[in-house]
Amino acid sequence: MRAKIAILISGRGSNMQSIVNACADGTIDAEVGLVASDKADAAGLKWAEQHNIKTAVISAKDYADRSASDKALAEVIDAHGCTHLLLAGYMRILSEQFVTHFIGRALNIHPSLLPKYKGLNTHQRALTAGDTVCGATVHFVSPALDSGPSVIQAQLAIESGDDADSLAAKVLPIEHHIYPTATQWLVSGRLKLQGDVAWLDDQPLQEPIQLT
Ligand code: GRF
After folding, report:
1. How far does CA 84 lie from the centroid of its chain?
2. pLDDT digits (tens, 9 = 90+) for 160-172
3. What is the pTM (predicted TM-score) of this model?
4. Of 52, 130, 169, 183, which alpha carbon lies 20 to 30 A from 30's?
5. All domains in the chain, ordered by first residue
6. Which of 172, 174, 177 to mutate to test the pocket of ligand 1 (most atoms within 8 A of CB)?
């Protein structure tokens, strides 16, 4: 059965676009079955609609609590027959129940060299710490934020004169490269989660694969 991917976004959706484009050109052997957002005005939703991709908005304000909104989100993803889930700039914390439903089938992209700088403002935190490198990580989604086993990282040098905006601009193309790569590994069955260890080609990953 061909994989069908659901992508969760909250904003611009450039990573979502990189996944859609990689499906279209055959880099990823899957189709995007749904783009869903917690924000009705997420720019990426419009782009997805223009590309004839099904979209959904599950807004927290329409539900009593996180458990109810996450249940609705899981139901809409399942109703579209999606086999895999990608978080791509999705800014809501997901409940443990939701994550458990998709465990081993869900990846996230994070703009830091995890385990450094989980959460927000990653580039500024790297600058403040005096780091000489920054980058991005694709990891399996687990109940704890930005903490599931890492799969791929790519890094670049921080140069004098860089600020948080320049780093974000330089890291983004890296994200657009490593996320489709990890996604193809997952949907093709090369990448698996066993317990809390990522396996690639039947080997446990002690460290994330470093791509340049
Ligand atoms: C990316 O930097 C991603 O790593 C982070 O949020 C940003 C989303 O950007 N989680 P976009 O919406 O994919 O353009």
Report:
1. 11
2. 999 999 999 999 9
3. 0.98
4. 169
5. 1-102 (3.40.50.170), 109-174+188-212 (3.40.50.170)
6. 172
